[in-house]
Design a protein that fits this description.
alpha+beta; Multidrug-efflux Transporter Regulator, Chain: A, Domain 2; Endonuclease, Chain A; 2 domains; seven-stranded mixed β-sheet; DNA-binding; DNA-bd_dom_put_sf
Length: 283
């Protein structure tokens, strides 16, 4: 027997019988939402791991409690697969996002623009920032203290950050262990209905001798409300893993599914992507 079949022993009929969800419905969910995720055998047949039974039943439970199917699927996928990287999860969930190579100097400029325009002006945003090392966080702490004053919550990640007791109006600091993949990332998320924005970047390897401001990152950014909400959910799940006591009392907004970006907004985002690439190349 093929090793794939040993790891994925269930047919779609088996999964349907074990969960009570008809095979046709499972195929529809896979087509529309990428869930459940089968392995494909040589002949094209679907095979499912045992873990998919519990995942499908959890989606059914959430849906029966009143959640929309898309929201239920996203919640189960986020909870069942512990994310390790905001950048990687955005690329996985939204493969059409444009990736750019940007220097740290350009990332600083773009981050400040997002912080000044979106984080500072949005109405009660949920904010996340990843700064790699504590020294970089300290350099930006005064900005984030100001941003946290009007935020629903402001969460900052960095290796070496001290998880001091949270105080109203101050950023919630989440310390990262040395081996955390998030230590290679640069993240700014402003999750707000009126001014959503997200920037996520991962540092390219092999830059030990490169001056700090010239370090290169692969970056994605967006103002699409759905992508921003996904980034917020991933960051919240990572914060749960590294600092379980961080959550404020009410974060139900993470369960909602915002509207997608308009065609005009997508075109404007594409223009800014191209502009950033030219500006970075001219440095």
């Amino acid at each position: 027997m093929d090793r794939q079949e040993l790891k994925h022993p269930l047919t779609i009929g088996d999964l349907a019988r074990r969960t009570g969800v008809p095979s046709a419905t499972l195929r529809s969910w896979e087509s529309r939402h990428g869930f459940p995720r089968p392995a494909r055998m040589a002949g094209g047949h679907r095979r499912y791991a045992e873990s998919e039974v519990a995942a499908v039943l959890e989606v059914v439970r959430h849906r029966d409690s009143g959640l929309a199917l898309e929201t239920a699927v996203r919640r189960v996928v986020t909870e069942s697969v512990q994310p390790r990287s905001v950048y990687a999860e955005l690329r996985r969930w939204h493969p059409t996002l444009s990736t750019q190579e940007l220097s740290k100097a350009s990332l600083v400029a773009l981050s400040h623009a997002v912080e000044d325009e979106c984080c500072a002006r949005a109405e009660e945003p949920l904010l996340f920032g990843a700064f790699q090392r504590d020294t970089f966080l300290r350099a930006s702490r005064a900005r984030w203290v100001e941003l946290a004053r009007t935020a629903r919550a402001a969460v900052v990640f960095a290796e070496g950050a001290v998880a001091v007791a949270s105080a109203p109006g101050l950023p919630i600091e989440v310390g990262l262990p040395p081996d955390a993949p998030l230590n290679r990332e640069w993240v700014v998320v402003c999750d707000a209905p009126d001014l959503p924005a997200c920037l996520a970047a991962v540092e390219r390897p092999g830059q030990e001798g490169v001056p700090d401001g010239r370090r290169c990152f692969d970056a994605v950014w967006t103002v699409d409300p759905r992508v921003v909400r996904d980034a917020s959910r991933v960051a919240a799940t990572l914060a749960d893993a590294y600092r379980p006591d961080w959550r404020p009392a009410d974060l139900r907004a993470l369960d909602d599914e915002p509207p997608g970006a308009s065609a005009d907004l997508l075109r404007a985002s594409g223009l800014l992507n191209r502009t950033m690439a030219y500006l970075d190349a001219s440095r």
